[in-house]
Amino acid sequence: xxxxxxxxxxxxxxxxxxxxxxxxxxxxxxxxxxxxxxxxxxxxxxxxxxxxxxxxxxxxxxxxxxxxxxxxxxxxxxxxxxxxxxxxxxxxxxxxxxxxxxxxxxxxxxxxxxxxxxxxxxxxxxxxxxxxxxxxxxxxxxxxxxxxxxxxxxxxxxxxxxxxxxxxxxxxxxxxxxxxxxxxxxxxxxxxxxxxxxxxxxxxxxxxxxxxxxxxxxxxxxxxxxxxxxxxxxxxxxxxxxxxxxxxxxxxxxxxxxxxxxxxxxxxxxxxxxxxxxxxxxxxxxxxxxxxxxxxxxxxxxxxxxxxxxxxxxx
Amino acid sequence: xxxxxxxxxxxxxxxxxxxxxxxxxxxxxxxxxxxxxxxxxxxxxxxxxxxxxxxxxxxxxxxxxxxxxxxxxxxxxxxxxxxxxxxxxxxxxxxxxxxxxxxxxxxxxxxxxxxxxxxxxxxxxxxxxxxxxxxxxxxxxxxxxxxxxxxxxxxxxxxxxxxxxxxxxxxxxxxxxxxxxxxxxxxxxxxxxxxxxxxxxxxxxxxxxxxxxxxxxxxxxxxxxxxxxxxxxxxxxxxxxxxxxxxxxxxxxxxxxxxxxxxxxxxxxxxxxxxxxxxxxxxxxxxxxxxxxxxxxxxxxxxxxxxxxxxxxxxxxxxxxxxxxxxxxxxxxxxxxxxxxxxxxxxxxxxxxxxxxxxxxxxxxxxxxxxxxxxxx
Lengths: 315, 377
Fold this sequence. Notes:
The complex is a heterodimer.
Chain A lengths: L1 H5 E12 L2 E12 L3 E5 L6 H8 L7 E6 L2 E2 L4 H7 E4 L11 H11 L5 H12 L14 H13 L5 E5 L7 H16 L3 E5 L3 H4 L4 E6 L2 E6 L1 H6 L4 E7 L2 H8 L7 E5 L2 E6 L2 H12 L4 E6 L3 H21 L1
Parallel strand pairs in A: 3-8, 3-9, 6-7, 7-8
Antiparallel strand pairs in A: 1-2, 1-4, 4-5, 9-10, 11-13, 11-14, 12-13
Helix pairs in contact in A: 4-5, 4-6, 5-6
Chain B lengths: L5 H17 L1 H17 L11 E7 L4 H13 L2 E5 L4 H10 L4 E5 L3 H6 L4 E8 L3 H18 L9 H5 L4 E8 L6 H32 L1 H6 L5 H29 L9 H25 L3 H17 L12 H9 L1 H15 L3 H30 L1
């Protein structure tokens, strides 16, 4: 019982199909209360559909699950009241002013002391001076802050943010993450889907999804440690030529260039070492064997998913 | 977890009004288009419909009366449906719009002709649409002189010597001066409502989906039904305003009489608006963007204006076009509104046109609701 209370989201084997296409395929995922969970995966992997099922917007075709203790199959209305969902696209009205938008959201949630709450939200945003401005005239960063304020109006216990920082400048992104961690500290559970690795590293735990299936989950450190993935990091001269000669060798799964360094990774350490051995004694290059970066890992997982499910999914 | 919340509905209505107010051009169009159409269609387009349904009330069976009926049939303008009908029945059929003409041959018609006295033939015409009856009436007048000449031979020839053996008395019923505005203005209410109602709901709902605000809206506790009604309600009010606009213009600009009950017309208008709104909702559930919604609205709007009897007399259209016209809500609404305004029809006379309207609304509403729900999930 205690376990259940501690889980903000607990879905098991949920599946959603559109026609013949299975978008989410037996996904099981747990979010602990008060944590910031990063949801990663390539475009079209089923992130948005999964989020929509967690917040009661879509009903899964099969599987079971609870969000904030409510059944996702039957209690969508109760879930909606306590969850804040920020859509991938700006979902507020561009032809309504900032104040009118917030007031509309507050009345749709049938909130008391509406004026006071909207005032408070505007103050927190620092938008009192521009409250009469139309939302369509705001920049990307401000729109995103306003959308966050709108989905926080009804004081939800769980926030589901679908790629909130896409197309937002670095400063605004940093401020946004500050806000998210503040909310988490207040006990709110936050799920953020993102493509940015620096954002993934700011999360308490991560889940990686491809072809509608959860490929891996855990803290960033755990993911790297448990990946069974090894990476040689090479810096120095003639890296470009080295990359070309290493790319197709047996034992090397991935070669990635990062400016002046090159990452060469593989699952089988012995095979990786064997393949790279002839090149390692170049005095003009510096070779170190280390842990893979999150990005290496995810790209590797994506490739693996493609081998396992890609063909099947195409059918 | 209320199934339906009035507060939430009100929130959507309020939001919708702010958006309508802010979108000045669309708002101007919604008021401007009716005014433009009103002035443009103040002048009617004439046509030459034939085979107009006619009944003959014959108070005597004679060679002369048979000749007249036969000649009318030959002229091509009249489609004689019955020659043995009572005057009261004929009156009713005219009021319900089932026939265009009722010809009354008085009991002493033959006697008057033979005595060389002026015999009278009474034509009752449904002249709400003057362009539909005009040519038929002039054809009837032309044949008077030649018609009875071969019946009046031998000993009866003396009767033919008078310039005209009988005279025709025409009652242009419901529109005595044959003013086309009488016909156009009541019909215009239907055309304007069809256009504004379908377009505004089809575009309004598609816009929410296209801009991504629908998803955000549905993640809140607001129910799909509240969104639908909340979006529709403001436009019903706008539709009623358009109607008042046209009715006022009808009264003060074109002096069109209003004989029937205003409340009956308002009730029918609300049913008609609802029928159009469900078409709009169905379009919005099929259209993927606002452009498609607009195109589909026009696809529905064109037959509504061309095949409903608004532009051209319904009975002048080919049979297949009439079948299509019979499906369209505008056809039936127009007949009701003309009937109520010009003929003073009540609910009983209007019922034959009201039930097809209701049927259309029910069928499309079922399609619309099923499709609307599917788009959400």
